[in-house]
Amino acid sequence: MTRNEGTIDRALRIFLGIVLIGLALNGTTAFGWIGVVPLVTGLLGTCPLYSILGINTCKVK
Question: How far apart are CA 49 and CA 56, in angstroms?
Answer without folding.
Answer: 10
